[in-house]
Amino acid sequence: MNIAIVGAGVGGSNLLNSLINVEDVKITMVVDTNLNSPGILLAKKYGIKYSDSMDSIRSSETDIVIEATGNEKVSKMVKDKFENSCTIIDSKAALFLMTLVRKDIDNITKMNNQISLIHDTSSLVEYQIKEITLTIEELRNLSSNLLSYTQLSNEYINKSDTIIKYVNEISSKTNMLGLNASIEAARAGEQGRGFSVVAKEVQKLANDSAGFSKEIDQILNKLSHEINKINVEAKKLDSLSEKQIVASNHVNDAIANLMEESNKHTTSSINPS
């Protein structure tokens, strides 16, 4: 369908801007006495033929002539010249079309602004989600390190238990040795008095060692209990991190779909079918 537009002011410019991307529609000529009017400048931009005279419109190549000036004299000239060869849309019908076009352009502009806002917001959210995901990965690594540290600490505690048992065994034998020494000192009478003092000190040392060993064992048991609690919490942290990663991936997928849809709508609004 070939269309010529007479009148390239704001209304004609809006018509041209709206029709330029419509399939099966070709703008063959834009006419206005002012070659610096908005519609003429737009025609130059799109490479559409333009003129300051209606004589440039070839009726044989034109199906519809749109009179967009609203000037009665121009309207009569268009009617006299093209009534028998082309379909004429007069200024009133053109005004109606231009009103619809302006609303259409406004709606498209608003929609594109909203889509742009959604796109920008989605990009920002996507960036923040990536930052959160990186933080979650760091927490996950921290959890893994904590689990490794607690396992290593438990190994040290187990080794300490072995040492404590060995110390207890030495303490027991030392105590027994001190007891036997005391008995022998008693049998020796006056000659064994000095040896008796040594034997008592050995028994005291054995008893002190046993007491310290018991205290250390209690401390290690408490430490083992706390480490087990840390181990449980670290496993919870690891599980929570995994859930957060899954949730972040879902959000990323949703944002990607939203951006894809917004891009589709932007393209369709720019190139309507």
Under CATH, the homologous superfamily of the largest domain reads Methyl-accepting chemotaxis protein
Question: What's the number of structural domains?
Answer: 2
Number of strands: 5
CATH topology value of the largest domain: Helix Hairpins
What is the strand content? 5-15%
- Which stretches are low in confidence, meaning pLDDT under 50 for 5 or more residues running? none
Order of helices and strands: EHEHEEHEHH
Features:
273 residues; alpha/beta; Rossmann fold; Helix Hairpins; 2 domains
Structure in words:
Strand 4 (64-67), helix 3 (72-82) and strand 5 (87-89) form a beta-alpha-beta unit. The chain has two domains: 2-89, NAD(P)-binding Rossmann-like Domain (Rossmann fold, 3-Layer(aba) Sandwich); 115-270, Helix Hairpins (Orthogonal Bundle). It has 273 residues and is an alpha/beta fold. The chain starts with a strand and ends with a helix. The model has no long low-confidence stretch (mean pLDDT 76). The relative contact order is 0.09. It has helices at 10-19, 38-46, 72-82, 91-188, 193-270, and strands spanning 2-6, 26-31, 50-51, 64-67, 87-89. It is rod-shaped. Residues 162-273 form the Methyl-accepting transducer domain.
Question: What is the structure about, briefly put?
Answer:
It contains 5 helices and 5 strands. The chain has 273 residues and is of the alpha/beta class.
